[in-house]
Amino acid sequence: MVRVEKVAYFSILYLVAWTLQLCISAEMYDFIVTRLICEDSDPTIIANASCATRSFNRTTKMHNITINVLPKVSLNDIYFKMSFYQKISTGYRRLILSIEDHFCGFLNGTSQSFIIRMIWPFLKTCGNLDHKCPFTGYVYLHNVVVKSDYFPPALPEGQGKFEIHIRNGPKRVSIIKLILFLEIKPKGAAILNF
Fold this sequence. Notes:
This protein is of the alpha+beta class. It has a single domain, classed as Ganglioside M2 Activator Protein, Chain: A, CATH 2.70.220. It has three helices and eight strands, in the order αβββββααβββ. The strands form two sheets. A five-stranded antiparallel beta sheet has the order 1-8-7-4-5. A three-stranded antiparallel beta sheet has the order 2-3-6, with no helix packed on it. A hairpin with a 5-residue loop joins β2 (46-55) and β3.
């Protein structure tokens, strides 16, 4: 029980630091999402899912996510589980915390989510997520440019990945897992790949 309380306190402290330092992180660090991949899509729910990354210019990448939900299937109780991993040597290790938010509850106004509220103005303009649950048919996000405003300032420099595991229903049946690979570096620093 004490461990759970410590994790809760650290999570709250982390979110407070995130809120207070967002403008500072945008001035000090560059967050570059190098690629986006889709994994583990459930064939009983999703007919087809694709994730793609393309270069917009020398420094900006745009990402596209398309999901075709099977006919007679509706996504009416969606949860997002978000985790950040840092690359250490040859593998990735999960950092500070993993957060689960009720996306449909946020859209319907019955649940509050700090993270979804921060990125919501951006998400609703890039795709067809601008209505309340349930979601059926074709779900998409097009030409998404991930900006540093959407990441906390407490992320360490180097390479990392941000996983968004999308699940549905009270039993949290897995729908799909989105993975964003990113680089975090101080402003003005360059990575030389020889």
